[in-house]
C-alpha cells in the first residue's frame, strides 16, 4: 500500500491488567476508507479511540507500541493531544450536536481556534455543510436549534462540525447504526465522497455497510487483528478461517 | 445445529446433485440409443426427463435469486451460489445436447458399421464417464478431483477431432456416406460439447473451493496440474 497515513506498530492496550488490544500492527492508507469489523468486545472501537487518544480519558488505560500518524508517534510525550484531535476528527454512534443553533454548532470549533471574522466563519459553515451534503436542507434555517433536526440530519451536522476544523482523518464509530435506511445511505454516500479529501476509519457491525463503503477492511477478534486486506478480497476470498466464519455468520 | 441459511445451501446443493444425476441419465440414454438401434419408447423417456431438468433449472435460479436478495452471501457462500447458477445452466445444456444426439442418431444409416469404423463407441463411453466424474466432483466439492476431468476432456476432444477428420475423408471419396457422415459429425460435436460443459462445471467447482477463476486462460494440461 502506498501513501500510508497511519502506521501502527505492536500497539497493545490494557484496561488495568486486562489486555484489550494485542500487539496490533497495521498500515492505514491515506484517502481511503478503512472499515474495522468484528464481534462486540473484539477491540475495534478501543482501537479506533487509540487513533485520536480518546482512551487517555480513561484512567486505568495503559498503551504500549507505536501509533504513527504521518510518521509522528502520537503517544510521544512531546505531542500536544489537542492538536492531535484537531487533526483527527471523530463521529460517534449517537449524534451529539451542541444545544445551540445549527450555525453555532459548525462555527464553534473554528471560533475556539481563534477565528473571529464573520465572513470567514460564514464561509466555513457553508463549506462544511455542503461537504456533509446537508447545506440544501439547512441553509434557510441556520439559526434554528440543532436539536430540532432529525437523527440523520443531526448525524450529518456532526460530520459537518468535524469537517469545520479541517481534519486530515475522520474516525467514525458506528455512524449510521441508529439511522433509518435512507439516512444510512446518505451517510454512506457521504463517506464515499469525503474520502477524496480525508482518510476515514469506520467501525461498523453492519457487514454490508463495511462492504459497501470501505476500500480496506480489518477484522478484529478478542483484541487481535486477524486479517486486513482490500475489502473486495476480504468479502470474496478471506485468507483466515476466522474471518471467513465471521463474515459468513458461522462464528462461535 | 445448522442455521437456516446453511439448510438453504444444503437444499440447493441437493437439487444440483439431482439435476446432475438426471443429466447423467440423459447422456447414458443417448449413448445407448446411439450405439444400439433407436427405440421409440426410449425417446419418450429422454423427453420426459428433459422437462424435469428444465423445471429444476428454473428452481435453482429462483433459489439463488432469493439467497442473493435475502442473505447477501459472501466469501465461499457467494462463490458456491454463483457457481450453482452457472452449473445448473451447464447441466441443462448437457440435457439438451443428449436429446439432439438421439435425434441425429436416427438419421444415420448403417450406423453400426460407421460406429465401428470410426471408434465412436469409445468416445461415447468416455463422455458417459466424464459426466459421472463431474457429478462426483460437484458432490464432493473436491478441488483436486477436477484435474482428471480436464485430462479426460482433452482426450475426448482429440478423439473427436480425429474421428471427424476420418469421416470427412470418407465422405470425400464416397458420396453415399455424406448424409450419414454429416449426421455423425454433428453427433460427435454434441459429444464434444457435453465434455466441454463437464469441464466448465469442474472449473466452477475449482472456483468455489479455491477462490480462483481458471476458465478461459489455460490449457487443460495446465489446469490439471493446478
From TrEMBL, chain A:
One of its GO terms (molecular function) is ATP binding. Keywords: ATP-binding, Nucleotide-binding, Phosphate transport, Transport. CDD domains: ABC_PstB_phosphate_transporter. It comes from the Bacteria. This is Phosphate ABC transporter ATP-binding protein PstB. InterPro entries: AAA+_ATPase, ABC_transporter-like_ATP-bd, ABC_transporter-like_CS, PstB-like. Residues 6-247 form the ABC transporter domain. PROSITE patterns: ABC_TRANSPORTER_1, ABC_TRANSPORTER_2. PANTHER family: ABC TRANSPORTER I FAMILY MEMBER 17.
UniProtKB/TrEMBL annotation, chain B:
Pfam families: PhoU. It is found in: Cytoplasm. It comes from the Bacteria. Residues 16-104, 121-205 form the PhoU domain. Keywords: Cytoplasm, Phosphate transport, Transport. Belongs to the PhoU family. Plays a role in the regulation of phosphate uptake. PANTHER family: PHOSPHATE-SPECIFIC TRANSPORT SYSTEM ACCESSORY PROTEIN PHOU (PTHR42930:SF3). Homodimer. NCBIfam families: phoU_full. This is Phosphate-specific transport system accessory protein PhoU.
Amino acid at each position: 500500500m502506498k501513501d500510508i497515513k497511519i502506521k501502527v506498530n505492536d500497539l497493545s492496550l490494557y484496561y488495568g491488567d486486562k489486555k484489550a488490544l494485542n500487539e496490533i500492527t497495521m498500515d492505514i492508507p491515506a484517502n481511503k476508507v478503512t472499515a474495522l469489523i468484528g464481534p462486540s468486545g473484539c477491540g475495534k472501537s478501543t482501537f479506533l479511540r487509540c487513533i485520536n487518544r480518546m482512551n487517555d480519558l480513561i484512567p486505568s488505560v495503559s498503551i504500549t507500541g507505536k501509533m504513527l500518524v504521518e510518521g509522528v508517534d502520537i503517544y510521544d510525550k512531546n505531542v500536544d493531544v489537542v492538536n492531535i484531535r484537531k487533526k483527527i476528527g471523530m463521529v460517534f454512534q449517537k449524534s451529539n450536536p451542541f444545544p445551540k443553533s445549527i450555525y453555532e454548532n459548525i462555527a464553534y470549533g473554528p471560533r475556539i481556534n481563534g477565528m473571529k471574522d464573520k465572513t470567514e466563519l460564514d464561509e466555513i459553515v457553508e463549506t462544511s455543510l455542503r461537504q456533509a451534503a446537508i447545506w440544501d436542507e439547512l441553509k434557510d434555517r441556520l439559526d434554528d436549534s440543532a436539536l430540532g433536526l432529525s437523527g440523520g440530519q443531526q448525524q450529518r451536522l456532526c460530520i459537518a462540525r468535524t469537517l469545520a476544523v479541517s481534519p486530515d482523518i475522520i474516525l467514525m464509530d458506528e455512524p449510521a447504526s441508529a439511522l433509518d435506511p435512507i439516512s444510512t445511505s446518505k451517510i454512506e454516500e457521504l463517506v464515499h465522497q469525503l474520502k477524496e479529501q480525508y482518510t476515514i476509519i469506520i467501525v461498523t457491525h453492519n457487514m454490508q455497510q463495511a462492504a459497501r463503503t470501505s476500500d480496506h477492511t480489518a477484522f478484529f477478534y478478542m483484541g487481535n487483528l486477524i486479517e486486513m486486506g482490500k475489502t473486495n478480497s476480504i468479502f470474496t476470498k478471506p485468507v483466515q478461517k476466522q474471518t471467513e466464519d465471521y463474515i459468513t455468520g458461522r462464528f462461535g | 445445529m445448522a442455521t437456516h441459511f446453511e439448510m438453504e445451501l444444503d437444499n440447493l446443493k441437493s437439487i444440483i446433485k439431482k439435476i446432475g444425476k438426471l443429466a447423467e441419465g440423459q447422456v447414458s440414454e443417448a449413448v445407448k440409443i446411439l450405439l444400439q438401434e433407436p427405440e421409440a419408447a426410449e425417446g419418450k423417456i429422454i423427453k420426459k426427463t428433459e422437462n424435469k431438468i428444465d423445471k429444476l433449472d428454473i428452481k435453482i435460479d429462483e433459489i439463488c435469486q432469493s439467497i442473493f436478495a435475502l442473505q447477501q452471501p459472501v466469501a465461499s457462500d457467494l462463490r458456491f451460489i454463483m457457481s450453482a447458477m452457472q452449473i445448473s445452466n451447464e447441466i441443462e445444456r448437457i440435457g439438451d445436447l443428449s436429446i439432439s444426439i438421439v435425434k441425429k442418431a436416427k438419421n444415420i444409416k448403417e450406423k453400426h458399421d460407421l460406429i465401428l469404423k470410426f471408434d465412436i463407441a469409445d468416445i461415447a463411453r468416455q463422455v458417459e464417464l466424464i459426466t459421472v466424474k463431474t457429478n462426483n466432483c460437484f458432490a464432493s466439492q473436491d478441488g483436486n478431483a477436477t484435474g482428471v476431468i480436464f485430462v479426460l476432456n482433452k482426450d475426448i476432444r482429440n478423439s473427436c477431432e480425429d474421428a471427424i477428420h476420418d469421416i470427412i475423408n470418407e465422405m470425400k471419396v464416397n458420396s453415399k456416406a455424406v448424409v450419414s457422415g454429416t449426421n455423425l459429425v454433428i453427433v460427435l460435436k454434441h459429444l464434444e460439447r457435453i465434455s466441454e460443459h463437464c469441464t466448465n462445471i469442474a472449473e466452477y467447482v475449482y472456483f468455489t473451493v479455491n477462490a480462483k477463476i481458471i476458465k478461459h486462460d489455460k490449457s487443460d494440461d495446465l489446469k490439471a496440474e493446478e
